[in-house]
Amino acid sequence: MKKLVLPLLAVFLASPAPAQEPQADTLQFAALTPDELVTADSLAALRLRLERKQIHSIFDTNDVAVVDTLPSGNDALLVVLYNNNKWKYVRNREVAKDSTVFEKYWDTQRLFPYREVDMSVMPQSVVIDLIDSTKSYHCPYQAPVNPRGKYGPRRARQHHGIDLPLKTGDPIYATFCGRVRISQYNTGGYGHLVIIRHDNGLETYYGHLSERMVAAGQWVEAGQIIGLGGSTGRSTGPHLHYETRYYGQSFDPERLIDFANGTLNHETFLLKKSYFSIHSNAGQDFDDEIANEEQDKLEHAEKESMRYHTVRSGETLSTIARRYGTTVAAICRLNGMQSTNVLRAGRTLRVR
Fold first, then answer.
1. Residue 297: which pLDDT band, with cuts at 50, 70 and 90?
2. How far apart are CA 74 and CA 18, in angstroms?
């Protein structure tokens, strides 16, 4: 079958290619089956099939091997053939990359190398391309966001990411293609941490991992397994702590991803300056996160200990208090009433 695929693609790719980057609406993550290639009765039909093929923004390369790499007629693009009869365009990083993205403020040891960046000169909004014909996406871990682990302030404390519940050992995926900037155990609270910088300037953080499977400086593809979920560092249980940052400034990852469905909300994202946390350049404070968790436990325990009583005919506050081992004053305080109030049958009183 390879003998059939290669000549057809070679003929198609030999046609003149535009010098500029291909447009997202024509060059998609195309994947033709052998039968589709066989039934292509002309070059025009093949070209049409390629142009109309629906986007497959999730392309997992972990379980497939590269068969061959072909030129595309554009030095910035290559065509990669896989052993599952699929192919996709990939960027020639030596030609197409913006060298400043992976060089300026690049630091494989410091989590936040952007401290000297003056964000006051940043425009009020920035257009960021998330996926196109050469950039893919994969949900880092599909699960509903923990209601207590959402982004933003809670009890005057700041949470700079979101928390996704998981089981220790669950695979964690690179969200977009990019280069690993950090892969280390972080004593500040993240535990085993991977940070990936993407060629659109975004960085994604993956914290509390039980195992890291990539190294600093390594190029990773969207959908590549970069580690396993866990509960390392200052963690109250197995979950993925996930952050999205731009020049070190955090913003809500749910603006990009619907984690319950695993889908990307936009192909092109308008990042507004107003989305940034006012404290985002300080990094994550996991002591605050644990304090929130402990407060949640106290509130939950208090709620679980609450007891209520429905007043029966002839009962008094004194008889009710004796029944539950409490005092009349305590019952009045819990219900905002006076001891002289008349009790009516059927009324519900909180007694603890």
1. low
2. 7
pLDDT of residue 153: 76
CA dihedral 272, 273, 276, 282 (to 10 degrees): 150
Q: What's the rounded Cα separation, in Å, for the pair 329 and 293?
A: 32
Report pLDDT digits (tens) over 207-237: 999 999 999 999 998 999 999 999 999 888 8
Mapping DSSP onto H, E and C, the string for the chain reads CHHHHHHHHHHHHHCCCCCCCCCCCCCCCCCCCHHHHHCCCCHHHHHHHHHHCCCCCCCCCCCCCEEEEEECCCCCEEEEEECCCCEEEEECHHHHCCCCCCCCCCCCCCCCCCCCCCHHHCCCEEEEECCCCCCCECCCCCCCCCHHHCCEEECCEEECCEEEECCCCCEEECCECEEEEEEEEECCCCEEEEEEECCCCEEEEEEEECEECCCCCCEECCCCEEEECCCCCCCCCCEEEEEEEECCEEECHHHCEECCCCEECCCEEEEEHHHCCCCHHHCCCHHHHHHHHHHHHHHHHHHHHCCEEECCCCCCHHHHHHHCCCCHHHHHHHHCCCCCCCCCCCCEEECC
